[in-house]
Amino acid sequence: MKTNMGGMDRVVRLIIALVVVALYYFGVISGTLATVLLVLAGIFVLTSLVSFCPLYTLFGISTCKVKN
Q1: Residue 3 · residue 51 · CB < 8 Å
Q2: pLDDT tens digits, residue range 29-40?
Q3: What is the mean pLDDT of the segment spanning 49-68?
Q4: How far, CA to CA in Å, does 10 sit from each of 29, 58, 64?
Q5: Tell me, what DSSP letter sits at residue 66?
Q6: Contacts (Cβ under 8 Å, ≥6 apart) of 46
Q7: What is the dihedral of CA 2, 3, 4, 9, to 10 degrees?
Q8: Which of 14, 22, 44, 56 is within CB 3.0–4.6 Å of 61 for a Cys-Cys bond?
Q9: Surface-to-core class of residue 10, CB atoms within 10 Å of its CB (0-12 exposed, 13-18 middle, 19+ buried)
């Protein structure tokens, strides 16, 4: 796997995941919506930790800075 996520992209994904978890914890979201959002939050955390997003490779996107 080649890194294709930059630092800011990783931070934004982690913040979104934390917001979703907080919304679930405080009971703002529940049911099927909560389940779907928690799964997406888990995927966001996983992709942030490994700095690789499979969808980015499908669309040819890379937010990682190129080293000269």
Answers
A1: yes
A2: 999 999 999 999
A3: 85
A4: 24, 18, 10
A5: P
A6: none
A7: 160
A8: 56
A9: buried
Q: What's the distance, CA 31 to chain centroid?
A: 21
d(C-alpha 61, C-alpha 57), whole Å: 6
Q: What is the pTM of this model?
A: 0.86
Dihedrals φ, ψ of 20, to 5°?
-65, -45
* Complete DSSP assignment for 14-48: HHHHHHHHHHHHTTSS-HHHHHHHHHHHHHHHHHH
Q: How far apart are CA 55 and CA 57, in angstroms?
A: 5
Contact 41, 20 (CB under 8 A): yes
Nearest to 40 by CA among 57, 61, 24: 24
Amino acid at 20: V
